[in-house]
Design goal:
By secondary structure, this protein is an alpha/beta fold. The strands form six sheets. The protein has a five-stranded mixed sheet, with helices on one face. A five-stranded mixed sheet has the order 10-11-12-14-13, with helices on both faces. The radius of gyration is 25 Å and the shape is globular. 51% of the residues are buried. This is Amidohydrolase 3 domain-containing protein. Residues 78-562 form the Amidohydrolase domain.
């Protein structure tokens, strides 16, 4: 089998009209690992039907048939039979907050994926029982009230009844936080505490705080309050970050781009992740952006940083990626679709111009948070002005989020050589968007297909851990189905992607955003050997099941970083959990469907007499049958059983 292949050797690419087996043998590149008997979604359009890969020194050295790849096996080559499973390139989150999330992961009770308020409160009660003073119980984002069967949040009365003495802080998206009475005492909020700028402390008729904090319109009050709580010790932050990376590996993530974040100061808050990188303990590739922390002194931040670190500095596991997502505070247009769109101040253009010009002159890639088209229009006015004076000339720059970006502005982004990083925030906030702007406006929010048709680089991500879950499969499900986690259909076929296209945005597409296009994102000779093996065949399972996928085998640079189910004997050694009261010890991370319900779903699909999946449950009738139905509430009752699955 002879064809033109590209192989990386010593960091440079060359092409040769030669067989992969012959080339591998000639270069004395006996594989370290061979995976075979698989269905490969290579994302390489020139090689779509391979069934096996060979990996040497962390890169793919062959992607071909079982017979051809097995010819390369040496005496020390490890081989793994994938037993016909689907294999995809490792997923790459183009916009997330791993560094901040890792520092806190072992302190947080995650409601990501929890199906009901009743279950969430049971988890809360169990965690309160083991959390010692003065620690808090924290539920810090990653969920929406619409994912719950009851279609509501827990009440403050319910939370206070469970936790009269232990502080409880619950963050819901960017819009609100719930604090019990013990938490109000811990942070010192009382009758005399004034509302901060951009936030509201809800009060009762006597003027006392109720425990509800409302973002109006930005989330500063929520994050500033959270920052008052205890932190993990430096040693536990290291363990916590390793556990968070393992959780991402479990979901098939092998790379991320960290978009910085509020209260994430460089270099101090990067010590933990830097130490892990130095000690070769990263299991996720990280490209990190720097996020200004000083309102009014943003240019000074970037002038300092451009002297001490260069874009691309680092290696394939940990490297600097440029500026943002906050470039200047006056440009922040945080999305809270419960509130009116924020109007950016008159000083924004001058401040953004000064920072952008400095970054372009320094050849620093940059990214900027832009939810609304009105904001993006003003950003582009600035960028076009800078480009006329100091050409961007191929510099990678990014608009993040872009929920309401217009076709005209998509074309302007393309003309300047920019990309758009999209996240699944509408899967969590679609209901709020529709309530404010209407279903018609939501149909192209964001207009992903229009971006792709215009030739703009598009990468998929999560914006985790606070405003949405870190689970990439929710995002893939959202791109394919056009539905929120609450089941609301947002998009018609004109703005939905097929399954391979959705995976491509989460792999090959995202690589552009760290200037690593061509180095990762496909199962292709010469690229990083990053692989995820989902527990079920992404290309064949019912659409409704996609959001519940996880990886049974995840490989980063040829090293197995996660293995479970049939591949569990290959798993790396378990990590310790500290502190011992950590919610992760009891509950783990993302809450997938219960195993017994999943089994019922499989049986139901096999025995189901329907020709197509129903509009409520797909073929997952077993989940409906086994659900904890809220029979005391007719609306919620029919919300769970609103189909003829068991008629």
């Amino acid at each position: 089998m002879f064809d033109r292949r590209t192989v990386l050797a010593g960091g440079s690419a060359f092409s040769a009209l030669i067989s992969v087996p012959a080339l591998t043998k000639d270069l004395n590149m006996t594989p370290d690992l061979i995976l075979y008997n698989a269905k490969l979604t290579t994302l390489d359009r020139t090689n779509p039907n391979a069934t096996a890969v060979a990996i040497t020194d962390g890169r793919f050295t062959a992607v071909d048939t079982d017979a051809e790849v097995m010819k390369l096996k040496g005496a020390k080559t490890q081989t793994i039979d994938l037993k016909g499973k689907r294999v995809i390139p490792g997923l790459n989150d183009s916009h997330t907050h791993l560094i901040r999330g890792g520092l806190n992961y072992l302190m947080e009770l995650r409601w990501d994926g929890v199906a009901s308020v009743a279950e969430a409160l049971d988890m809360l009660k169990a965690q309160v029982a083991v959390t010692p003073a003065p620690q808090w119980v924290r539920v810090v984002g990653g969920f929406t009230e619409h994912q719950f069967a009851e279609k509501r949040l827990p009440t403050l009365d319910e939370i206070n009844a469970i936790a009269p003495d232990t502080p409880v802080f619950i963050l819901h998206l960017y819009d609100r936080a719930l604090l019990n009475k013990a938490a109000l005492r811990a942070v010192g909020y009382d009758k005399g505490t004034p509302n901060p700028p951009g936030g509201e402390i809800q009060r009762d008729s006597a003027g006392n705080p109720t425990g509800l904090l409302i973002a109006k319109p930005n989330a500063l009050i929520l994050y500033a309050t959270l920052a008052r709580g205890p932190k993990l010790s430096p040693a536990d932050q290291v363990i916590s970050t390793r556990h968070y990376m393992k959780e991402l590996n479990r979901l098939g993530i092998t790379s991320v781009i960290d978009a910085g974040g509020g209260f994430q100061n460089y270099p101090d808050d990067y010590d933990t992740i830097g130490t892990l990188a130095k000690n070769d303990q990263l299991t996720v590739r990280i490209a990190y952006n720097l996020f200004t922390q000083n309102k009014g002194k943003e240019l000074e931040d970037f002038q300092t940083w451009t002297k001490i670190v260069k874009p691309g500095e680092g290696d394939g596991m940990y490297r600097h990626n440029g500026a943002g997502e906050m470039l200047v505070f006056s440009a922040a247009d945080y999305e809270d679709f419960r509130e009116p769109r924020p109007e950016l101040g008159a000083t924004m253009e001058d401040e953004l111009y000064a920072v952008t010009r400095h970054l372009v002159e320094s050849r620093w890639p940059f990214r900027i948070h832009g939810t609304y088209d009105e904001s993006i229009s003003r950003f582009l006015d600035v960028f076009e002005r800078v480009n006329a004076e100091v050409p961007f000339d191929g510099l990678h720059w990014i608009i993040d989020h872009a929920e309401t970006v217009s076709p005209r502005n998509i074309d302007r982004i393309r003309a300047l050589g920019g990309g758009i990083a999209v996240q699944h925030r509408m899967a969590y906030q679609g209901e709020a968007f529709v309530a404010r702007y209407g279903a018609k406006a939501a149909e192209q929010t964001p207009p992903v297909k229009r971006m792709l048709e215009a030739g703009v680089p598009v990468g998929m991500g999560t914006d985790a851990t606070r405003v949405a879950s870190y689970n990439p499969w929710v995002g893939i499900y959202w791109l394919i189905s056009g539905k929120t986690l609450g089941g609301l259909s947002l998009y018609g076929p004109q703005n939905r992607l097929d399954r391979e296209a959705a995976v491509r945005l989460y792999t090959e597409g995202s690589a552009w955003f760290s200037t690593e296009n061509g180095k990762k994102g496909a199962l292709k000779v010469g690229q990083y050997a990053d692989i995820a093996v989902p527990n079920a065949d992404l290309m064949r399972i019912p659409e409704s099941d996609i959001k519940d996928l996880y990886s049974v085998l995840t490989i980063v640079g040829g090293k197995i970083v996660h293995a479970q189910d049939a591949f569990k004997p290959l798993a790396p050694a378990a990590l310790p959990i500290s502190p011992d009261w950590s919610p992760v010890r009891t509950f783990g991370g993302y809450q997938h469907k219960k195993a017994e319900i999943a089994s019922l779903d499989k049986i139901s699909r096999l025995s189901c007499a329907c020709g197509t999946d129903c509009k409520v449950h797909g073929h997952a009738h077993g989940g409906a049958y086994a659900a904890n139905v809220p029979a005391n509430n007719l609306r919620d009752f029919w919300g769970v059983l609103g189909c003829a699955c068991w008629a």
